[in-house]
UniProtKB/TrEMBL annotation:
InterPro entries: MFS, MFS_trans_sf, UNC-93-like_regulator. The keyword tRNA processing does not apply. This is MFS general substrate transporter. SUPFAM superfamilies: MFS general substrate transporter. It is found in: Membrane. Keywords: Membrane, Transmembrane, Transmembrane helix. It is a multi-pass membrane protein.
Length: 450
């Protein structure tokens, strides 16, 4: 059969050919399993490893490596080998990191050996993460249309974030069944291998969106090296404004994932770990359901700054609860309520970030490498700094954290308004059978600036 003619103008294309939701769902499950091995390792790092000596330096190095390779390596590699094979090869570094944490647990009590095992694996997974997320962002946005970015990213993150619930819950149940930590975390590494296998299936699938005609973009036509294109986007006025919201997200992410567990501390370390895992599972469950619903709301509101303004009320409630409570230590009602609200707020923030990036930049690896550079750099700084913002009792100092996050949030909302106020967000088409495919010109994003 002869190939279909090029698609130009306002040609109507079958919705399922353009919007390959089944592929997005499969991608979500692949990430679910890949990150099942990572989720518990990251969230429980400050519990199962010495916080200041190993955990925070390990996580800081991971995201510093992520930032470096997002700038210099991710876009050229993804462009060279393709989005789908890049995701598979990058996922193997997650498997290696999961099993490196098992090795670190075997050497419990020897911080130097643990650091010697984890630092190289952290640098390796940082390299893999830069490729994986640049590929994921490109793949996801090529599956979506301008009307459905919020819903598609919502479905993907709902499935992917299931790992944030399943991983700690599975680990907690293993510990409750008297399975030792080394075996439990080793089993989590096995789930990461399963995720890599699913990515092989995605590799065998046709390219997303329209398999016959790939949209052109600046990165495909420009003779400028891709890492220089990434640098240009990273330091562009639009990306710098977006980065304020990105950096706010990275700091609140570091606090809720690495610092909140430190507020659980009794004489029974095994019970503490189990309770922290249950608390983390609660966070993951709330994120799943929020992601399922928030995408459709985002696509109807079509205004990220309004979404973030409403979202700031939820964040503020959490900041005040943690900052003003006289004794948050081992206060399970308080910690559960904060985790629930924080999970809702974080899911909304991530959804808005994808909406904004999809609206301002072309759907290519260069744009998503640039976005992930800011995210990973922010997370690296946040994790390195977290170890220095502990009290003498090794508890996060809320007198520092809460004003810091609150101020960051205000500036982020203002910058989000500035960078998105002049974008014309296309309303939902309301048609289920066909969508209009606009001609893609060089440098076009999924949204159109006024």
């Amino acid at each position: 059969m002869a190939p279909s003619p090029p698609v130009t103008g306002d040609m109507k294309v079958p919705l399922m050919k353009l919007n390959r939701m089944p592929d997005v769902i499969v991608l979500g499950f692949a990430f679910f399993f890949v990150f099942t091995g990572l989720s518990a390792c990251v969230k429980m790092a400050s519990t199962i490893l010495p916080p200041s000596q190993v955990a925070f330096p390990e996580l800081g190095s991971l995201y510093l490596s992520f930032a470096f390779f997002a700038l210099f390596g991710a876009a050229p590699i993804v462009d060279k080998i393709g989005v789908r094979p890049a995701m598979f090869f990058a996922s193997l570094t997650y498997c290696a990191f999961a099993f490196a944490n098992v090795g670190a647990l075997i050497h419990s009590g020897d911080a130097n050996t643990q650091l010697g095992i984890l630092l190289p694996s952290a640098i390796l997974i940082g390299f893999g993460a830069s490729i994986l997320w640049a590929s994921e962002g490109t793949y996801l946005m090529r599956c979506a249309t301008k009307q459905t970015i919020g819903r598609y990213s919502g479905v993907f993150f709902a499935i992917y974030c299931g790992s944030a619930a399943f991983s700690p819950l599975f680990t907690a149940l293993m510990l409750q069944a008297n399975v030792d930590k080394i075996t439990a975390f080793g089993l989590l590494g096995g789930f990461s291998v399963l995720g890599s296998c699913i990515l092989i299936y995605i590799w065998s699938r046709p390219d997303p969106s329209n398999p016959d005609v790939e949209p052109t973009s600046q990165s495909e036509k420009s003779k400028t090296p891709l890492f220089l294109q990434s640098a240009q986007i990273i330091f562009s006025p639009k990306m710098l404004l977006v980065s304020v919201l990105v950096y706010f997200y990275t700091w609140e992410f570091a606090f809720i994932n690495a610092c909140i567990p430190l507020f659980i501390k009794t004489s029974d370390s095994t019970l503490d770990l189990r309770n922290k895992l249950y608390l983390s599972a609660l966070f993951g469950v709330v994120i799943i359901f929020t992601c399922l619903f928030i995408g459709k709301i985002t696509d109807r509101v079509q205004s990220p700054w309004k979404m973030m303004l409403g979202n700031s009320v939820i964040y503020l409630t959490c900041f005040l609860a943690m900052g003003l409570h006289p004794d948050p230590m081992n206060n399970y009602p308080l910690l559960c309520c904060v985790n629930i609200l924080w999970a809702i707020a974080e899911a909304v923030t991530v959804n808005q970030l994808y909406k904004i990036i999809g609206g301002l930049f072309a759907a290519n690896p260069t744009a998503y490498s640039s976005f992930k550079f800011h995210q990973s750099l922010g997370q690296s700084i946040a994790y390195f700094s977290s170890g220095r913002m502990l009290t003498a009792e090794k508890i996060p100092d809320v007198k520092i954290w809460m004003p810091l996050l609150g101020g960051f949030m205000v500036v982020a909302c203002i910058c989000t308004w500035i960078v998105t106020k002049d974008i014309s967000w296309a309303p939902p088409s309301g048609k289920k059978d066909t969508v209009v495919l606009d001609e893609v010109k060089e440098g076009d994003s999924l949204m159109t600036a006024k």
